[in-house]
Design a protein that fits this description.
By secondary structure, the protein is mainly α. It is about 85% helix and about 0% strand. It holds the Pfam family DUF485.
């Protein structure tokens, strides 16, 4: 692509909208994951007995399912991002590309 096409894409208001929406959404998901993960670590650091309690009469502690829950949450957040990226973000991206091609 020529510099001309890059300049047209950057000047497109939809490109600015795409970058803003994508960044905002990614940061929100990142903050959710960081809060959950660091809360888990802080509980382990300052109250280890909380996650050290056994479940029933077995050897599994409360921390194991909570840890699995955090892993599952990361997969869910990834899926949420992918869903939105393949929908709204791809649609905006396609509109930007079409407008850049039609302005030649």
């Amino acid at each position: 692509m020529s510099q001309n096409v890059y300049d047209r894409v950057r000047a497109n208001p939809k490109f600015t909208e795409l970058v803003q929406k994508r960044s905002s959404f990614a940061w929100k998901l990142t903050i959710i994951m960081l809060v959950v993960y660091y809360a888990f670590i802080l509980v382990i650091a300052f109250s280890p007995a909380t996650f050290g309690q056994t479940i029933g009469s077995g050897v599994t502690t409360v921390g194991i399912p909570v840890g699995f829950g955090i892993i599952i949450l990361s997969f869910i957040l990834t899926g949420v991002y992918i869903q939105r990226a393949n929908g709204e973000f791809d649609e905006l991206n396609n509109q930007i590309k079409e407008e850049a091609r039609s302005e030649k």
